[in-house]
Design a protein that fits this description.
The complex is a heterodimer. By secondary structure, chain A is mainly α. Chain A has two domains: about 70 residues; about 325 residues, no CATH class. In chain A, about 65% of the residues lie in helices and about 5% in strands. A two-stranded antiparallel ribbon of chain A has the order 1-2. In chain A, strands 3-4 form a two-stranded antiparallel sheet. In chain A, helix 4 packs parallel to helix 10, helix 5 runs parallel beside helix 7 and helix 14 packs across helix 15. Helices cover about 75% and strands about 5% of the residues of chain B. Chain B has one domain. In chain B, strands 1-4 form a two-stranded antiparallel ribbon. In chain B, strands 2-3 form a two-stranded antiparallel ribbon. Chain B starts with a helix and ends in a 14-residue tail after the last helix. Chain B is mostly helical. Chain B is built from eleven helices and four strands, in the order ααααβββααααβααα. Classes of the chains: A mainly alpha, B mainly alpha. At the A-B interface, helix 1, strand 1, strand 2, helix 7 and helix 14 of A face helix 2, helix 3, helix 4, strand 1 and helix 9 of B.
């Protein structure tokens, strides 16, 4: 008890060191233009007190747990086996959402679904092929700008542009892939990050083409076999054709099903690819690149296809993003987006499809809960990321079923999986 | 000629700041093999701490500039050191020995948290400050273009070089530095030989954070304007500098920082200021393709 108090007291002291200046003394521009300090000692006292109590509780709880459970058993994650029944339930819920959900719920659903799709796309690159990509948002941006520019300059529709956006993004994926073929691990991460930043800076500064920081607005909405979703109804609109009351909810629901379909496509393709020689080569590459080379796997082709296919799905998602919001600007494609998608993939448990979906629901849906505290939202997001990582470093679904096995496939515990070398 | 010389001076100043941040990256990477993604944000916090200290000291009526700078430097370095220690303790130590991506994600989370913490506690608006040391030394004049070295730039050179000398001495001559180098070579062996590896790693973070905070102070004094977002771009560029020089090599980090600063200054001066980040990042990509280990880095031999 004394030791716990001492520990908590030390933590409180550190917290005081951290917060007394940054929180207690707020710099503010005074009315005469010079800087002045506004003091917030109450906030410092609260933070220090909270640290003391929190640390004390944590230490005491840990001490209790240590005395009851002697050896922590190595067991596969609780969620690992849940995939079998959880996946169909989630699928049905997702399908029914627009029918029973409110407008706000559908909007949130679209957002979550976009991140699920991005997560599954990035999962191909990071989870399957083991290539750490911190610039994934660049391909998302390429897809979005491809659709926006093609639609504005050539008058092409969404469904024509969707495959084009995917192709262009895949092309950029290959372009990035070539120079980084020789790089591994953190070097690869930093080059992909730099690539993402280059694309963003070009989007901001190439004003003639991209509209610069003002972005592109008035991007056309998608149609359903030529039926439009205008707010007022009218000739050739969805509500007119089916004799329904014109409402914007139809458009939102339609958009929801579009991204739902795209996400399912991503899932289907990556699950299928895992069973192909190519997918097996990816997973082999993730586990050991040198062994791959020794066994005659063409590492160049394997890496490039992973980049290209992962990028293509980001391109699809980007085109959808452009058509959904009808407005895009470089602000939507910052590093933080890449970080969020990567966090979803890692928190989901690398390589796990259901885990990625769960992580997207928890992180993006959970973020929506904090919308009222807009100021603190990203702060909470960052802290939550650290806390989840520290407590569950392997992600929510950490076990893995091998994609090929002799006899019955058995779940492998997370401690048996070595990955992330590449 | 005169213009080029001026860009050279500006580039070296900028490069010194990047170099100071890059040292922190390269030390941490050398010892525990991870990208400390929150390092750029420690730099940002350091510049905010300096702003707070300078404002507070001005309010207290201290008018001697050297005394003020010295106090600010010590204050920023010490408090940022606490930040560095806490970051390692909270976000990285529990993940040591976990798979590689885990600490990186944790670091990204920490970076987001720190950025938004400063945004909430200090406000999102840009903070600016008048120059503490105005005036400049005219070097020479050519066709009406004056090449000048501001007093501020001289202060940055002197402080950076002094810190680097102290730091080099610390790493090469003291027992602490020996422990750090031992941990870098082989953590397990070092701990078997009685080195307190946890302590050594903590000290590495504290020193790295203190250097970054001094860089933040220099940044504030040089540009006179900061916001909560400066850490990201500066951090990425400093990491670029560390990679350019060869990750794990201390002189490499400083040389890489100087190169990045020069590239940026000359690119803004002669080509286009808007694309200066593109220039810096393109250099990074080219260097990694041509020599993946950087300028002074050792090749990683992989044993099977």
């Amino acid at each position: 008890m004394i030791a716990a108090l001492k520990d908590a007291g030390f933590s409180a002291l550190i917290a005081f060191g951290l917060f007394f200046a940054m929180v207690g003394l707020q710099t503010n521009v005074a009315s005469n233009g010079s800087m002045e300090l506004v003091q917030h000692w109450d906030a410092v006292a609260m933070l220090v007190g909270a640290t003391f109590v929190g640390r004390l509780a944590l230490v005491l709880w840990k001490a209790r747990r240590a005395s009851t459970a002697i050896v922590a058993q190595v067991k596969p994650s609780r969620f690992a086996g849940a995939g079998k029944f959880l996946a169909p339930v989630l699928l049905i819920l997702a399908f029914l959402l627009p029918i029973f959900g409110s407008r706000y719920a559908i909007d949130t659903g679209i957002l979550v679904m976009t991140y699920v799709m991005l997560g599954w796309g990035l999962n191909i690159v990071v989870g399957l092929a083991g290539l750490l990509d911190l610039g994934y948002v660049a391909f998302y941006a390429v897809g979005a700008y491809s659709y926006a520019l093609l639609a504005q300059n050539f008058g092409l529709g969404f469904w024509t542009c969707l495959p084009l956006a995917g192709l262009l993004a895949a092309f950029w994926g290959m372009l990035l892939g070539f120079p980084v073929l020789r790089l591994r691990g953190d070097y690869l991460a930093i080059v992909t990050l730099a690539f993402g930043e280059i694309i963003r800076v070009v989007l901001i500064n190439w004003t003639e083409l991209t509209g610069g920081p003002n972005g592109i607005s008035g991007i056309p909405r998608p149609t359903l076999f030529g039926l439009t979703f205008t707010a007022g109804g009218g000739e050739g609109s969805f509500s007119d054709f089916f004799g329904l009351e014109p409402s914007l909810t139809y458009r939102v629901a339609f958009l929801y099903y579009v991204i739902f379909g795209l996400a399912l496509l991503t899932n289907w393709v990556s699950v299928r690819l895992r069973r192909l020689p190519l997918g097996r080569a990816w997973e082999a590459l993730r586990e050991d690149e040198i062994a791959c080379r020794a066994l005659g796997i063409n590492v160049t082709v394997t890496k490039l296809t992973a980049f290209a296919i992962g990028a293509a799905f980001a391109g699809f998602a980007g085109a959808f993003f452009a058509t959904r919001s009808a407005f895009i600007s470089p602000e939507s494609f910052t590093f933080i987006e890449s970080a969020i998608v990567l966090a979803i993939v890692v928190l989901g448990g690398l390589g796990s499809q259901i885990g990625t979906a769960l992580a997207a629901i928890v992180m993006i849906g959970g973020g929506e809960l904090f919308r009222d505290f807009a100021e603190y939202r990203m702060l909470i997001f960052g802290v939550a990321l650290v806390v989840v990582m520290v407590t569950r470093p392997r992600g929510l679904v950490s076990g893995r079923t091998p994609s090929v096995s002799l006899g019955k496939a058995q779940l492998i515990g997370s401690d048996m999986i070595s990955q992330g070398h590449g | 000629m005169a213009y080029a010389l001026q860009q050279l001076i500006n580039g070296i100043t900028l490069g010194m700041i990047y170099g100071l941040i890059a040292v922190g990256y390269t030390m941490v990477y050398g010892i525990i093999g991870m990208i400390n993604f929150a390092h750029g944000d420690v730099f940002m916090i350091g510049s905010f701490l300096s702003l707070i200290a300078i404002t507070a000291l001005t309010a207290m009526g201290i008018s001697s500039v050297p005394l003020m700078l010295a106090l600010t430097l010590v204050f920023a370095a010490v408090v940022a050191g606490i930040y560095g220690w806490s970051i390692e303790r909270i976000a990285y130590r529990p993940l040591r020995g976990s798979f590689r991506l885990a600490p990186l994600i944790s670091a990204i989370g920490m970076s987001i948290a720190l950025q938004n913490f400063v945004q909430v506690s200090q406000g999102a608006r840009n903070k600016s400050m008048p120059s503490l040391i105005p005036g400049a030394l005219k070097i020479f004049e050519q066709d009406g273009f004056v090449v000048q070295l501001t007093w501020m730039q001289i202060v940055i050179f002197v402080v950076t070089l002094t810190l680097l000398v102290i730091f080099t001495w610390l790493v090469t001559k003291t027992s602490l530095g020996r422990a750090m180098r031992a941990c870098e070579q082989d953590m397990k062996m070092a701990s078997l030989l009685g080195i307190d590896t946890n302590f050594t790693i903590s000290v590495t973070f504290v020193i790295g954070a203190a250097l970054a905070a001094v860089a933040g102070m220099m940044f504030l004094l040089y540009y006179g304007s900061i916001d909560f977002y400066i850490g990201f771009v500066a951090g990425v560029k400093a990491f670029t500098a560390a990679v350019l020089g060869g990750v794990g090599s201390l002189p490499g980090a400083v040389i890489g920082g100087l190169l990045i600063g020069l590239i940026e200054a000359f690119w803004s001066g002669y080509a286009s200021a808007q694309y200066k980040d593109v220039a810096a990042f393109s250099v990074l990509i080219i260097v990694l393709i041509v020599m993946p280990t950087g300028l002074l880095g050792r090749a990683d031999v992989e044993k099977v």
